Every structure is written in structure tokens, then in C-alpha cells.
Amino acid sequence: YHYALKEFTAPTRFVKAYAIDGKTFRLKFNSQGAGEANLLIELGVRAHFIEYLSEKSEENHLVKILRRLLENAVVKNACLLNFDRIIEIELEKKEKYFLIIEMLSEGNLVLCDENHKIIDCLHSEDYSVRTIRKGRPYAPPPPNGMHPCELTPTALEGKKGRVIQLLSKAVNLSPFYLEEACAIAGVSPKQEASELTESEVKKIIK
Asked: What is the spatial distance between Cα 56 and Cα 186, in angstroms, rounded to a whole number?
């Protein structure tokens, strides 16, 4: 999404939200430079831009709030929180808002004010380490590891254990992608980290 925003000529504005069904939503944006853009969100499954979707909308309490508060708001930024499956879109009208799209598990949509206090959400949830509920401060899940760009040789050098096990503990990426990184580096993910050469460590990190 952040990459797609670079294709727009500022300002990019939020136009309208649609509920296609209980877990699928469409966010419609418009830019002076690129025209209409539609973000399709199937919670817990996918989030991507699509050329066209029907404007038919189911009744949904959160969609009504998004339309009322965000219509014509300017998109200021979009990012992944903690390099996780959470998209945060920062919007500004008279006030600043954060629309958070959680793709974890069954997924959730959360609208926050400028202080990240929850205005409303699709689902209220109580977890062991956080609560998603109207009026509560929003907090993402604790990160499972560091951003891949922050990885240093100390995560592997001189450590006991298989490469894939150590990487899974250190980096916030699924084993599938970590195994692919090892394959590209020409290193077996099952190799003992203590047997890696300095050159092999650098290749994995790269």
C-alpha cells in the first residue's frame, strides 16, 4: 500500500467505505494525479488494490462511522506496524485519524483518534496482552522478532542450533520466507549455525 501511494500525486483523499460482506470491505480513494483507487480488504486473508468493485454495501455500523468521519480526509501516510500483518493508514480532515487493518487471525478494522484511542472497531476483542474495545487505547500485538533489515551477524555467529530455528526466534518473518532466504544464500536451513562461515552469515543477512 505504501508503494502504491507513491504513484499518487498529492493529495490523495478517502472517498467512501463499503461492506461487501461481514469480512470483506472496499475502501475507495481518489487522487488528482491517479484518479480512483480501490483497496479490497478480506480480513485475515488479503488486502490489495483492485480496479473495480460493486458499490453495493451491506449495513455495517463501522462503515457508517468511516463514511461520516473520514469522507474527503487526506491520506498522510500508510505503513506496516512492527513489520507485521497490520496496515495503518493515517488520515487528516479537521482532526487526525488512524484506520488500522489487522490481518491477524480472523482480522479486524479499528478506527482511532489522533492519540490512538479507539473510536470504534469491527470486533471487540480481549487478548492476554491487549484489548481492542471502544474507548481503549490501541496497541498492536508485541512483535515476535526484529525487522529483517535490523538483523545482524550476532543472531547467528557462534550460536548453537539450526539456522532456521535461530532465524525464526530473531526475525519477524514466517519460516517459509526464512527458508527461501537460506536457499538464495546457498545455505541449508537445517545447518548448524556454529558451522557457518562469515561469508555464509553475510549472505543470509543480505
From this structure: 50
